[in-house]
Amino acid sequence: MNFSELYRQSNQLCEFSPNGEFLAIGSHYKLIIRNVITSQIEHLFTCMDFIQYIEWSRDSSLILCGMFKRGLVQVWSLKYLDWSCKIDEGSAGLRNVHWGPDGLHILTTADFNLRITVWSLTNKSISYIRYPKQCEKGYDYSQDGLFMALAERRDCSDFISIFACKSWELIKHFSCATDDLSGLKWSPSARILAVWDSLLMYKILIYSADGYLLRKYSPYEHALGIKCVSWSPTGQFLAIGSFDEKVRLLNNISWKTSMEKGHPLVVKPDKVTIYKEEVSMGPLPTSFEEISSAMVALCSKESKYHIVKEALEIPSIKPSLTKANPELGVSQVEFSCNSRYFYTKNDNMPCVLWIWDVKNLCLSHILVHLSPIKHVRWDPTSVRLALSTGNKQLYMWTPSGCLSAEIPIDAMFQVNTLKWHPDGSALVLIGKEKTCISYLTGEQTDDQ
User: One cellular component GO annotation, for this chain's record (predicted)?
Assistant: First the structure.
C-alpha cells in the first residue's frame, strides 16, 4: 500500500473519472485534473465562482462544476480544451445539477424545486419538467441509462413520471399510493421501481415499470419508519433499514421478507467473527513544555484488530428522542459487488459495522472501533470494503481478515471520506482541506 503526497481541496470535492484515468479535485475557484498513475496535473480550469459540486460525464470526456450560490454551471472538456459551456439559471436559482446518462444533456433543478431544466449540449435546446418533488431521493436513472424515474407533487398528491433519456419524452405517468413520498430507486434490471414513504411511517411500494403496484410492504405502524433502501447488484433482494434498528430483505419472487434481523446489544462469537480495534500508545514527550498539538499527534499509536473470543457488549449511545432525526436505527445498507455480503450501520451504535452473509441470511462479521465510523465503501470489483473513523487510519475488511493501516504522511491529516477507483486499484482519502491517493497492491479475489 503506497500513498501520494497531500493535495489541497475544498468541500471534499474529489472524484475519479469513470474510465479511471483521472482524478478531479475542486479547490476554491480551480478545478484540477490529475493523472491517477503519475499524480501529475493534466489540466487546470478556473471557474467564475467558488466550486460547490463536480460531476463527470459517463464517458469521462466532460466534467461539470456547480456554483449554487451564483446559479451557475460550467462545463469543461478534456478532449477539446478550447471548448467550454456556461449555464446560468438566473433568478430561478440553482438547487441541484447532474448529468443525463448520455453525457449530452445536463439537468438543473431551480430553487424551491420549481422546475427541472434539461439543457442539450449538442443543439442547445432547452426543455422543462414541472412539479418535481422536493425529497431526499426524488429521481433515479435506470442502470442502463435508458430511463429516468421522477417523483412529482401535484394537487397535494404524489405522482411518478418515467422519461426516456434519449429524447426526454414522457412515456409513463401514474399516481403513487404514498402520503409523502421520500425516495425511489430502480432495480438493476430496470423492471421494478421501489418507492418509499416519509420517515413518519414504514411503507414501501413495489411498482413495475409500467406503473402497476406489485406489493405494498408495511411491517408496523405508528412509529418512525424507513431510513435507507438498497438493491442487491443482482436484483434478487431489496434491503431496507429502519428506525426500529432492524434490517429486512425482500426477495424479488414473492416480495415477502426473506430476512429480518436486529442489532443486539450483546453478541456471542460462536457463529460470528468479532474484530475489535485496539491501540498501543507510543512514547510521550518527557517535558510538558515540549507538548503541542502537532507533537501529540506525532506520538505513535499502533492500531490493530484483534479477534474477540468471548461474548461482547456492543457500545451504544442513548439517542435524544426530543430532537428531529434522532441518532437511532439503520441508516446505511449496501451490498458487495457480487451480492454475497452487505453491511449495515446502526446510528445508536456509531462505532460498529455489521457485515451480513446473504447466502446464509445471517450475521457474519462485526467490526468494533474506538471512534464513530465516518464513511464506508465497498470495492466496486471485489469483496472488500474500506472505512474511516476520522483519524489517520485506513481500515479494510475482506472475508479472510481485517487491516488497520496508518497513513504515513502529515500527522494532522485525518480521513473523513473515501472513494474507490473504478477498478478497485486505489482509494482517494479525503480530509477536511486535503486529500491523497492510496495505491493498493496485490490481487483480491471474490468470495463466491
Answer: MWP complex
